[in-house]
Amino acid sequence: MLLIRAAKAIVDSVRAEKPPGNSSMTPVHGLAARYLAGRDDVTTVELGRHLGITKQSASEVVAMLEKSGTVRRAPHPSDGRARVLLLTDAGEVRLEEGRARWLRIEDEWAELVGRDKLDVMREVLEDILTADMVARDQRPPLDQNASCVDS
């Protein structure tokens, strides 16, 4: 229960830091953009698997990211029927802005509980999530530093 309540507090903190103008962007959109960073071979189906959502929900997330100019679709390098999702330059900027907001929030937490405790908490949560991804046969994000895009 503590973890769920803490997750809600985290999302609320990130939303409070959200810049005006992108009210339709959510933390899920940020997680999606973060997963796409540095990759050029992710399909909508794989993104949905990573996020733990249905193909239909993944398509809706991608549609919103496209509408906001955060991602674009491109031909898959080896599968002529598939399309890959790529962050746009604007998406990269939004991701960096999200990282900066996240770091400000994280610094507040470090002041509250101490950097050492925060680092231990991060390591434990990363281990749990990595084990979950391995169990679900998924690859972890390239960037292990949490961030959100306009969320």
Keywords:
151 residues; mainly alpha; disordered C terminus
What does this entry look like structurally?
The protein is 61% helix and 7% strand. It has helices spanning 2-16, 27-36, 44-51, 55-67, 89-113, 115-135; strands spanning 71-75, 83-87. The chain has a two-stranded antiparallel sheet with strand order 1-2. A hairpin with a 7-residue loop joins strand 1 (71-75) and strand 2 (83-87). The radius of gyration is 16 Å and the shape is globular. The model is unreliable at 143-151 (pLDDT under 50).
Topology (SSEs and partners):
Layout: H1 2-16, H2 27-36, H3 44-51, H4 55-67, E1 71-75, E2 83-87, H5 89-113, H6 115-135
Antiparallel strand pairs: 1-2
Helix pairs in contact: 2-4, 3-4, 5-6
